[in-house]
Amino acid sequence: MSTKVVDRAPLTFYERTYLPAILGGLKVTAKHFADTVFKGKSVTMQYPEERWVVPEGYRGAPYLVKDQDGATKCVSCQLCEFVCPPKAIRITPPGPEGRPADRANAEKMPREFEINMLRCIFCGMCQEVCPEEAIFLQKDYSITGENRESMIFNKEKLLSLGGTHAGIQKWKHKLEEAQAQESFPVETP
Amino acid sequence: MEAINYLSPTAQMILFSALKIGVVFGVVMTAVAYAVLVERKVSAWIQDRVGPNRAAPFFVDYLPVIGPFLVKLGIFQPAADGLKFLLKEDFTPSYVRKVYFWLAPAITVIPALLTIAVIPFGSNLGGQKMVIADLNVGILYTFGIVSLGVYGIVLAGYGSNSKYPFLGSIRSSAQMISYEIAMGMSVVPIFLLTESLNLGEIIRYQAEHGWMILKQPLAFVIFLIAAFAETNRLPFDLPESESELVGGYHTEYSSMKFALFFLGEYANMIASAAMMVTLFLGGWTLPFIDALNLPAGSLLLGLVHIGVFLAKMAFFMIVFIWVRWMLPRFRYDQLMDLGWRRFIPLALANIVVTAIVVALFNH
Amino acid sequence: MTVKVNGKTVQVPKTMPDWQGKPAPTTMLQAARIAGVDIPHYCYHDKLPVAGNCRMCLVEFGTPMIGPDRKPVLNEDGTPKIARSVLPYEPGTPRGAIACATPISPGMEIYADSKATEQMRESVLESLLINHPLDCPICDQAGECKLQEYSVQHGKAGSQFVEAKVHKPKAVDLGPRIVLDDERCILCTRCIRFTRDIAGDDALGIVNRGSYNTISAFEPGKFDNNYTLNTVDLCPVGALTSKDFRFKMRVWFLKETKSLCTSCGTGCNITIGSREGVIHRYEPRDNDAVNGPWMCDSGRLNYRWVGRPDRLKEVLRTSAGGARERITWGAALETAADILRRAPQGGVAFVVSARQTNEELFLLKKLAAHTGALTDAVPREGEPDRLLVSADRNPNSNGVRFTGMAFTEFGFNLPKIADGIAQGRIKTLVVFGEEVTREGLGPELLAKLDALIVSDILPNATTAAATLLLPGAAHAEKRGTFVNVKGRLQRFQKAVEPPGDARPEAEFLQELVQAVTGEEPSRSIEGLFNRMAAAVPAFAGLEWARIGDTGVTVQS
Questions:
Q1: What is the dihedral of CA A157, A159, A160, A162, to 10 degrees?
Q2: Is C138 within 8 Å of A79 when comparing Cβ atoms?
Q3: What is the pLDDT of residue C139?
Q4: What is the architecture of the domain spanning A62-168?
Q5: pLDDT at residue A188 above 60?
Q6: Which terminus of chain A faces fewer neighbouring Cβ atoms within 10 Å, N or C?
């Protein structure tokens, strides 16, 4: 056993009257009381009027972002839906008859993209797993709604809240690279 | 006003008693509401916070400077709290024992309010003594009623039919019974000295011979600490102890029923404070000024006496609140140790010593 | 023959069946499989001719050394000395052989996990990925892609290739059901070999040279036979994808349920891919006794009706006044039992479907026997093909025969039933899963009936005329067994929930049988099957558990 038993010093009679504890408590409380009342040293932040500065890397609400040309970046790969621990994300893939993607060479974008902000735990797994840099945890922390339905954010809302993020512009470079090559010797039907 | 003189003495008694009851009840209720505010404010300040500073009725806009200041002090907060309690959902869990569950809050509040009946909160106003019931056995009545308070808590714990309230109420009954003994014995020397159980007589004795706190400091200390235990205040709030029992006996209560427990607790504090003022701080009297030390001859003096009484009471209320942040909660065994092995012997010794002194010097 | 795989000695036969089932020298890949070692491969497929072009199955191996005296060279401890394969002109460098096409020799040692083998795999993968677009996020193959899997297992993170990738045509319309992404293609030629050698439609080939090699259809857009979608399954990467399944659902969400195709009597084994009650695709499931690894396009795409919004979802009863009301199952079965109990012998006729399970037919037979009813099923014929599609388009014709609900020739009793109704002998008709107004029992005949009890899945003229309508479940929504045209008994599992009030027929038929005959229902489909096996001679001695995933052949 590596436990070390520390002998406690027995309390003196004075200590056992509880007086030092009472006086100590009085001293501490009186100091803080005086500081708050007379010196105005309060730590309270008057929330709706005063707001804290959201630090970099804060994990707020996840929103979808658009690329530099305003196109939807999400390609509906559904990895975020898969990885989402509370199953807050629900993606409806475009399917064979879906609307063509905003970026022609990315081929695919979600028909619908829903995040249930009531289920979301702001863990950031979706952002981490996203291969397209299309979803980011942003700085919103105060998300309110009047009913459960209004807390399910759809694709349109997520895109409008998410803003723009250019990133590595994979699809743009791919297109440029393809266009720079001599036309391919097989005609596409 | 002349018409009053034509009424029979019994009718007059009933009329004035009703009037006094109404006024005292109103004052106590208001005092409870503001005691809660003071508790919140003082707690906030001690903890470097600002406390409630938002509640603002519409007319505040028409008060220049003062209005915002009052809002900042939270003066309107009690009204908002009361309204909130009234409007909250009164939820009764399915598993409770309904009759006791509904009975418990009432049984908690009523004894607390009844105690106040015998407190002489002033000398006289006009021809009326400022006490609702000038009983010759006032202090016995008080202890009798106070000991009923425990039933409310025990019933709340039993009626809730859930573990935390149950534990809370068990602790509470043990605690209150233990400290009632110490409390009761601590005041015996006072009666040895004053030779009366009437609280008015005790005040008169103090006006003549000096405050009891100076003659019986030990009794005062025991009574004060027992009062903390009896009102379930920190450092003796084991029945509620949020951190271990969620909320103790009122865990399952909501809305107005919860508010009644709250009310009972603060009414108990007020009653204890009033009791201490009466027994040890000379009640409505102030020494060295004859006009204030003797029963009032005019309406104005009568009001001043009431003011003096209220001021002393307010002091004790602040003490109650402040101590909450000075000391941590006792452990259960420490609590019992303190009650049975320290205070009861001390109080007994105090009785014996006082009795010997009285026997030697007074006769 | 004895060989060593990863140091483990195994006995393997000298020859094994090739893609056509003919004996051929055992290859290293087959020997490794017997030893329980899976050698990664792309172009090799059990049921296709060997091509040996992807090079993924390269392994280092060794053979016993032969001395100048033509005798094996031995080590000091008497074991034969093994010569590791090396380049002939560079003896320090290991040389690999493609395991899929290299026959084994006695005493051969295969090093499927040696450092040299791993290096070969790494290099092959790097080479295959040179022009690959790495667009897994938008690729339907992601999740079941061999390129992904092997890259994770054997590949490395970076590529030494710094030049621009060759950009090939994307989303090429190869045929009515197939989309081709040339950039993703690794040119394994599995699709070419399948359509040439199995489907017999030599429609695909490789055109252009070097880096510009691409798969192409002989007539662009006209790759159209009834087996094209098998090339999607065969394609180890995401080059060939199904138009039907394109961008529909990521495969890792799909719940896979072992089931059967119901489009014809062949009874191809399938895997149903469903998510949250929605069927997204059918895929063939290996069963050499029935369909091998293949299935036809028409059967594969015949699943949408299961999720049709107009499915029958309510139990309905037509009252005497002609008004239809929604009732509970309890009330409906009580009504049906009442009708069947009170019917005179021969006053009832049953028209059942050969699309129903054996268990359901068995229960219907009990009801028919109890009422002395005329019974029949409806034939359904079509053009057969030379590979899988059967002329009999009913999935369970033999089941109908075995349970005794119809003669060998379906439709034999239908005219008699029509006659009976016309003459007023038959007052009650029970129809399960068939549209009898097309089979000579027109609306004017049905109007003569006192009671028309119908169970079906989709609405039609018969269900419209029903006086008691019992919504049933599609095969994907229940469990049961079928017997295919060749007499193979196979079982299928439940993939999705039936919509609305619809219930599996076997379930409510058991309750109905209990109400009519008083026989205790069995709690599960297993119990029901076992009870049927005891009663039906063709299934004698069988148990649900013994059928297995690939079925058993019963006497026909």
A1: 120
A2: no
A3: 92
A4: 2-Layer Sandwich (3.30)
A5: no
A6: N
